[in-house]
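#struct-help
A.M.: can someone run this one for me? Single chain, 168 residues.
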Amino acid sequence: MNIGFDMDGVLRRLDLSLFKFRDAINNKEAHEALEMHIRRETEPLFNPMMFALPSDDIYCITNCSSENSAERKKKWLNHFYGGRIEIVPVYAAQGKWGNEYVDEVAKNKLEKCHEYEIEIYIDDDPAIIRRMRELHNDELKDFAKSEGIHLMPYVKFLKYGAWLEEVY
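D.P.: on it. Structure tokens below:
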């Protein structure tokens, strides 16, 4: 089985609102201090091995702002999960917010779910989960209609975490 997880808010505890504060700060030293605080305070939140057999493949499909960001996330994953989880970075919606952000991130994460044949994907953002379900179901309906078959979806998208409201 192939299982996918989001990183921030699922595999690691991270208050994403701190990034909004970081980006709003014009003072370089304060910006760097907040960035250091954000990185230092990240800790494992969820144990994905509780879902997996030893033969299952586990993926972390996470939006990254840069190659440097992806490398930092990979090092973090390897440190806390011992190389058991393969990182699959997505580079989407940089500098965007609201529906533009959700649509682009959901589309890119869905493409990775299909590419890696993910059967279960877990994210903490309800808007991204909702949009991934919509896009996935639309794709399946179009395919089934063109082939004249009834097709059951193979990916299940689950929301995990305290983020309850879509804030977009």
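A.M.: thanks! The chain has a mean pLDDT of 86.
D.P.: also worth noting: The chain is about 45% helix and 15% strand.
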